[in-house]
Each structure stands twice: as C-alpha cells, then as structure tokens.
Amino acid sequence: MLAVSGGIAAYKAADLTSKLVQMGAVVEVVLTKSARHFIQPLTFQALTKRPVHTDVFEGWTVDSFGHVTLAREAGVLLVAPATANTIARLATGLADDMLGAVALATEAPLVLAPAMEHHMWQHPATRANLSTLMERGATVVPPEQGRLASGYEGDGRLATTPAILATLRAVLGRLGPLAGRRVVVTAGGTREPLDPVRYIGNRSTGKMGVALAEAARDAGASVTLIAGPTVPDLPAGLDILLIDTARELMAAVEGATADADALIMAAAVADFRAREVSESKIKKGQGESRVTLELERNPDILAGIDRPGLLKVGFAAETESLIENARQKLLAKDLSLIVANDAVATIGSEESTATLIRRGTEPETLPRMAKEELAARIIHEVAGMIAAKNGARHA
Ligand code: CTP
Fold first, then answer.
1. pLDDT digits (tens, 9 = 90+) for 291-319
2. Could you give the C-alpha distances from 54 to 119, 183, 278, in angstroms and in order?
3. Could you tell me the sign of the dihedral formed by the alpha carbons of 384, 385, 387, 393, in that order?
4. Which of ligand 1's atoms lies nearest the C-alpha of 333?
5. Whose C-alpha lies nearest to ligand 1, atom 29?
6. Is the link from the previous residue into 81 a cis peptide, with omega within 30 of 0?
7. Hey, what CATH topology would domain 176-277+290-394 get?
8. Residue in 157, 162, 160, 164 with CA at minimum distance from that of residue 139
9. Which of 140, 201, 261, 343 is deepest in the core (most CB within 10 A)?
C-alpha cells in the first residue's frame, strides 16, 4: 500500500507507483486530504487500474471493508512522501483519515520516505516523531540533500525512486531464506596502478555482483558489497566497501568475512600488478619504440580465504574449455559452487548464460537470462547450501 501525503514531492509518487506496477506489485494507493492539493486520484487510478482511497468512510462492499481490508491485505505500508504533519499524525496514532486508520489496523511493516522543507526536517518535533516510529519498527528512507522547492539547499528532498524500491525489497525480504545470514559479495574489476594517472584494468562492470548483492539482500541477508571502481550504481540497503586494487580487495574480504556465512566472489581480480609503481607520470622518453612492464603475481583471494563454516562461491569467466577449467577452479579454490560463463558474451552484457557446477553433481547449464534472474537463482542455491550445512530446513 502506498500512502501519499501532501507535499510538493507528491508528484514523484506517480513515478514510484508506475515502477512498482511494472515490477509486478499490486498497489493500493491512499491519498491524504493534503495530497489531493498536489495530485489527483485519477493519476494513480490510471497507473494502478484500481480505485484510489481518499476517505476513511468509503463505502463497504462484500469484497472490501474499507480500512480493515486494506490493512489486512497490505504486504508493506509505504508512505511517500511522508510530510512532517503525516509523520506527527502517525507517531500520535490518529485515525481520522484512511492512512491513519490503516496504519493502526495493519500488521504490515511501515516504510517512511520523508520529504519536506529542511527546517521542518531538522525540527526536534519531527526528529522525536520519527524516533518514536522507528522504535516501533518503522524503516526510514532518509531524504536527500539538494535544491528544495523553497529555494534553499539542504536535506529534505524525497529519496530517489531506486533507493525507495531497494528499501521496500529489503523490508519485504526480511523473513526470506537468508534471514539472519551474513553474505559478502565482491563486484567489478580491480585497478592496478602503473603511475599516478595510469592503471591496468579490465572490462568488468560489476553488474553480476551488484545483482547478487541485491538478491541476497532481498532474501533477508545482511550484505556487505565490496565494489571496485567500475561499479556505477551502488544499491541501497547494503554495507558498501570501495576498493581499487586486488590487495585492497583481499584486505576488505578478510575483514568482512570474519563472521559471514557466505562469500560470493564475482569480482574480476587482476592476477598481476606492476612490480614497481612510478611516483611520477611515466614519460615516453626519447624515441623509445618499446617498453617492458614487469608484473608480479597478486594473491588468489578466493583460494587463500579459509574460515570454518564459510561457504565459498566463485565465478569462472572463460574463453575456452569452460566446464573443465571451471571444475578445476572449484577444486583448487575449495569452493561449494562455481558459476561458469563465457567471458566474451558475459562481460558488460545485461544477460548471462551460466553453468552451475557443484561438487559431486553434473554441471547444470541454465538458459540465457537477465543477470538479475541469474542472481536470484544463484542466491536460492546458496540459501539451500547454507541451510543444508546448518542442518536447518530450507523452504
Ligand atoms: N579470484 C580471486 N583472486 C584472484 C583471481 C581470481 O579471488 N587473484 C576469484 C575470482 O573472483 C573468481 C574466481 O577466483 O571468483 C576465478 O577467477 P578467474 O579469473 O576465472 O580465475 P583465475 O584463478 O584468475 O585463473 P585464470 O585467470 O588463469 O583463468
């Protein structure tokens, strides 16, 4: 259920509704009285193809008992934008409008995306009301800094649609198969410096790693995403560590896996680094037609990490002998699962064709699918393996 309260950011709730519908959600929209000064019910009716709720005294039918039905059927109650007034009303427990009545009657989790003038946001009354709601279990998607409708620069802008959607997915996944588990995911390529302006890198964009981190979060895990510099869109609802080089990645992995259940190594790690990094820019010199770069081996992070109880998942991007090479890596790096794919067809693409290779079973080649879909499939597999390891029942 999406409740829209009355601030100028109410127009952004239309985009949010559209995205939710596209993701397959059934969206019941409630507009407060003030919201209707900014946006009309018809906008949301057209987007959801459902009636929009504006009045706590709307008529009951055999199928719909107003706020009672809305409260019972909601999977999550999102208030976006949540104005200072609406936050105060929710904290007090007023039930004289549809939003207030549903908020009291529902057992669904409450997610608030505040948006308001920045003095109102910083006011102790607003802070106290938010603290009250958070103590009762509400999740807040904090507003962003930027230019406000008031003309001021400050915090109070509604969080972006992707940030709100990410929080919703995380809240809805709280009781998922990875609830209570800690998962570390690495994503993107590393960069090995040659001098202050140049580096050795690779074409990995980090899409697969990001999709895996999001899928683990959506399955209820608390996730640490360790990302290289090529990863452009870092998702919300995760702990994020940024690294450049393979050795920085290794240190981050060692720290993050101390109490983790699984390590998913989707990063494209440079196997070699420059033996010497020049402190000043390397000049091309007088008429030199050839330069030799001496490289030395980086540590193999996945092979080197050895923690009792840590499930290790690797990737093998190959250009030839896919299954054979991947199987060797599965054994050499002591992995529970390796995801093998064609390096050329996968790196930089939105889709992937993957073969899952586990110990003691036949490789399973999956059809070509979007990286998000593949990520959900791999996380399902990981959840099953963790549950089996811990002797728990996996749904
Ligand atoms: N990996 C790692 N540390 C490295 C190199 C790779 O942890 N220094 C991880 C990758 O993140 C991946 C798996 O090991 O999950 C396999 O990586 P890949 O580059 O395919 O294999 P390599 O062991 O580097 O072997 P090669 O480059 O010879 O194919």
1. 889 999 999 999 999 999 999 999 998 88
2. 29, 42, 66
3. positive
4. 14
5. 318
6. yes
7. Rossmann fold (3.40.50)
8. 164
9. 261
